[in-house]
Design brief:
With about 475 residues, the protein is α+β, with helices and mostly antiparallel strands. Helix content is about 35%, strand content about 20%. It contains 16 helices and 18 strands. Helix 8 runs antiparallel to helix 10 (about 300-315). The chain starts with a helix and ends in a 15-residue tail after the last helix. The structure holds (2S)-2-hydroxypentanedioic acid and zinc ion (ZN).
Length: about 475
Amino acid sequence: MTGTDDWLDELRALLGDSAVLTAAADTERYVSDWTGRFRGEALAVVRPASTAEVSEVVRRCAAARVAVVPQGGNTGLVGGGVPVATDGDGVGARPSVVLCLERMRAVRALDTVADTVTVEAGAVLADLHDAVAEVDRLFPVSLGSQGSCTVGGIVSTNAGGTSVLRYGMTRELVLGLEVVLPDGRVWDGLRALRKDNSGYDLKQLFVGAEGTLGVVTAATLRMVPATPRRATALLALSSVRTATDLLPVLRAAAGEQLTTWELFNRASLDLVLAHVPAARDPFARPYAWYGLVEVAGGGDEVDARLEAALADAVEAGGVPDAVVAGSPAQREVLWLLREGISEAQRVEGVAVKHDVSVPIASLAELVARLEERVPALLPGVRLITYGHVGDGNLHYNLSAPVEAPGSLLPASEELTAAVYAVVADLGGSISAEHGLGVLKRDAAAGLTAAVELDLMRAVKSALDPLGLMNPGKVLPDG
Ligand code: S2G
Ligand code: ZN
């Protein structure tokens, strides 16, 4: 028996054998990420069932100087939820455990007076949606990965999704957190007070920290009134400029009930039509761009508002065709055309993804400049362009040229540098909603003011002086 084996056996004695995985067949899905771009090694995958168990595991890791990689549904896109690769990936890989919260799924409290829900970090987002729907409420973070991403994951990455236009990012819905700190202590910050100015707003340190400051084990979140009535349409658009010009038009007609305004290009739709069996092109001919709009509320006023919005949009020009969902089934198909893009692109192999944001009015210029620069760097590269018009967030995800599948990854650094240069020139961000993880850690540092990096490093070293919490993510070491 080695020291490590003894240490792992003690963890098994604490948590139970099935909560400490070491066999490669058991750990593979935890140490490699969804995108297929990141894979690391771990001494074990540890699956605690309670905050007390998380606390004890973290305490023992700190004592043994073993790093902790917190993980929810492992749906991340930047390598933030898996151990850094043993080849260093820019930082020295170190003995780590993946600490997966998947067994902590309880809804601890639902308060329909204050409209808050307290839920454990391993709860799947779709299950949280169902739980709050039972009390006629909505938790308004909506993501394509909601069937597998977890509450701890969306908090730790400050997830966005398709309803940010109306409800904001996850950060704006977090009222309180329970966190296991890097030394194993539990911070119970699960306060649901609407007003609490008693010192620093500590919870916000952990929202979007990607598990580098502590392990989020539960959250108290805002619920909003349910929106049982949804009116949804797909518009054919002549350009990106049309999509951005229509935002105020749609907002004027639908008011605060405008919930979604999403954009995707023909290449995105072609992927979905090729790989998603239930997908159907609702139009008789192809168009360059498409916009998915949804108006949601409590009554059938949403239909009239959508109709008015569409009339104004057609009047404004640039909308050669539109289709309104006539039933929930038809609505699901329209949503599938947008939300199926990510999975469809994955079928075609590893993509070089960019999750960027620019001022909304600059989206058209961003796309135009990229359409000029990127194909020049890799002829035949496929531009899978889609995103959230209402918050200026574009997913500029590149797939390899059909006739040269191996040409993409070798060109990825140059392609990404070109994308980020245009984004920076337009005053945008190179990570709108997916976080930094490993993928964007160094590029972001290069675009961040020294004083800001110093502040983030000061917070990191104050909370995690041993650097054991998700090392190699968000901030470059040193
Ligand atoms: C989206 C999903 C991730 C991706 O669909 O809005 O955030 O594949 C993306 O870029
Ligand atoms: Zn997105």
